[in-house]
Amino acid sequence: MTTDARTEQAAILVKAAEYLNWLKDEGLTHVEVSRMVPEKSRITTIRQPRGLAVIAAEIAKCEKCGLHGTRTKTVPGQGIPTPEIMFVGEAPGADEDEQGLAFVGAAGKLLTKMIEAMGLRREDVFIANILKCRPPNNRPPTPEEMQTCMPYLKEQIQVLKPKVIVALGATAVRGLLAVETGITKLRGHWHVFEGIDVMPTFHPAYLLRNPPAKKEAWEDLKAVLRHVGRTPPVVKKGG
What we know:
It is a single chain. The protein is α/β, with parallel strands linked by helices. The protein has 2 domains: about 5-40, no CATH class; about 50-225, Uracil-DNA Glycosylase, subunit E (3-Layer(aba) Sandwich). It has helices at about 5-25, 50-60, 95-100, 105-115, 145-160, 170-175, 185, 205-210, 215-225, and strands spanning about 80, 85-90, 125-130, 165-170, 190-195, 195-200. Strands 1-3-2-4-6-5 form a 6-stranded mixed beta sheet, sandwiched between helices. The longest helix is centred in the N-terminal third of the chain and has 23 residues, at about 5-25. It is globular. The termini are far apart.
């Protein structure tokens, strides 16, 4: 086969894949195939993507980096399987490592308040981290650990299909956007990760240490709400 023929064939396959993906999004799981198509080329079933539970089960068995030797539980993330908004943080802490849930410590409690201020509940969003295991002593993830763990998060995002990802803190931004620019310069400005809009903002742990920054973080969250066609609830002041 010549180079031009291979190129043409590859283009046809790409178009076919795009069409099949569209059919899948429309809810179709089988397609009829002409008998004139060679037996080996027939496509009779569209392979469905792996579900969140399957991904979480694989994460639980993961030994791809040294963190598996020090973790108590893996922390795949949790929330609604069809979120408009997804929050992505850095890595599990001690409380998360013990419970196997993302953002359940002091920073998690503040994140809950932030979500509720948006007029939502934790059950209305999906919350995850760049890493699925806790680094010892809550140290920052290494580049190698992030590179090893990112495929799990990417696959989750492909399944969840959120409208917006809120990147919490510098490490989350670095993992998603592969940039070294500081969070102070990036926050408040829209970015894109694999076709999904990303809003960087401060990590709740940083806000606990620097309460004045909550005002800027709230502006970022209001921008997220506007982006998905929502408005924050009106806060009634006491008389």
